[in-house]
Amino acid sequence: MKYSFRLTIVLLTSLIFYHCSWIGTNNSSSNNRSSLTGWNFNDPKYGGYIKGPAHKKQPIPEGMVAIEGGTFTMGSVQDDVMGDWNTTPRQMHVRSFYMDEAEVTNSEYLLYLQVTKDVFPPSEEKYKHIYEAALPDTLVWRKTLANTDLLSESYLRHPAYADYPVVGVSWLQAIQYCKWRTNAINLKKLIDKGVIANVLEVDSIRNFYDTEVYLKDPYLLFDGDSTVYKKGVPNFKDKSKTKGAFTGRHVSSMDGILAQKFRLPTEAEWEFAAKAYSENREYNNIRGRKKYPWKERYSRNRSKKYRGDQLANFKQGKGNYSGVSGWSSDGADIPNKIKSYPPNAFGLYDMSGNVAEWVADVYRPIVDSDASDFGYFRGNIYTKRVIDENGKVSIVGKSNEDSAVYDTLPNGKIVVKQLPGTVKHVPITKADAFMRTNYYRADNTNTSDGDHYSSRFYSYDEIQFATAKEMYNSPKKPKLEIDSLTGNVVERFDKEKRTTLISDESRVYKGGSWKDREFWLDPAQRRYLPQYMATNFVGFRCAADMLGGFSSKKVVKN
């Protein structure tokens, strides 16, 4: 009887192992075979047509944490003591995404500055504004009736503040950093794969890299030096050597090797991540309301070891930024070193306090009831690549001595809109949006709030509407004029009386800072500044999309 029982167990185990092996083998073969045509992928006998590795797990980007999406109440669920009513609660759904576990620090931003200065030397006339446009405004620390000059001189570059969040960065500068980070990570991936030689250690090669250019035509990079390319991924169409020593083919989007784009989080994403309702969840319900990113109802630590300490860095009262000498209750009087306070349930640090943070959205006083409840975002501007007469993508600067595309801001500063060597983009036209049901124009920032159809002049034609009174009377950009006598460029600034800073260039920033009172620690609170302005209390962190599945561990099976 005992022997029969053992034999039965062995037979059952063998049967299960065989069944699992067959499923694994069958799935593996089906991954490289078209289930609808019977053609093999990645097979020279069938044309060598590409299919990337199926179900390839997306690695969590460096310095980020995974935020599993879901539904939540966006907006304030507390009393609106300020009475501005700009945080009306709305139920929203947010897709899964990745977010930096802490703000971008001075040392990380300085790396970006060093690379920018190396790739685009300001000593060369065609590049002279690029590095300067990336520099944070260190003078944000100045105060006419305060002794803060030391911070203007030291906060950005001194190693004592290396791990402190960078400030003095405008929304426009934060966007440029996100683009650079995408390219920096993908360049390293290609170097690690052996596709590109280590251009970072070769002084004779201008190590400018752009992911979009690489995907379109790799030989437009590195000043056309094809010797930097060493070994591509397997080419099932042609195994012969091309372009000198390069073998195989270049990496494409279908290979799943290159990282997704880094960007600023949307307001909905930032608020969802800060509230971290996952720790208040009971099955598929949210239990209780959260006033802060942490679960407690108070701003002080209740644990035995740290009882009474503040859980965030914020201004506690008039003239009280850190507490009494010898007992600093929040540990800082200006921004503090990142990760100095406990993370929230998602593993994110300083989602309240320390510094407030830029998000991607254009500001409007309310979130409209007809706004999308799926991945809400205001600020979409749809563009397309410029194609030249030869049918190839146009590159910025190729016809104008590698000059960048600049813009002059209302404060007179010059910023870079498109770097030399990148693919030219222009807004889509009406013809591009013709017969579409999901959008009908390029710039959607003022949709339903300030555009033609939402104003009281909706009956006007386009010419009449252009001269009508605007909904938001905000400052205009300065105009550049040429002096007829001297030939010099003269900047004409807006001198009209303005009543608001709300415009299509006003961006939301979220979270309290070292300079704010406790009220602003509520993740639902929202404020705004023009996208070209910078302060000593607003920083930023990056986000990235989670590609593929929803990532939930719970799977309903029939």
Structure description:
The protein is α+β, with helices and mostly antiparallel strands and 558 residues long. The chain has 4 domains: 17-48; 65-140 and 259-379 and 507-558, paralog of FGE (formylglycine-generating enzyme), CATH 3.90.1580.10; 380-444, no CATH class; 447-503, no CATH class. The chain has 8 helices and 20 strands. The protein has helices at residues 2-31, 106-119, 130-134, 149-154, 171-192, 211-216, 267-275, 462-466; strands at 64-67, 70-74, 90-94, 97-100, 262-263, 281-282, 285-286, 323-324, 327-328, 356-362, 383-385, 405-408, 414-418, 425-427, 479-482, 489-492, 506-510, 526-530, 538-539, 543-545. The strands form 8 sheets. The protein has a 4-stranded antiparallel β-sheet. A 4-stranded mixed β-sheet has the order 18-17-10-19. A two-stranded antiparallel ribbon has the order 2-3. The longest helix has 30 residues, at 2-31. 29% of the residues are buried.
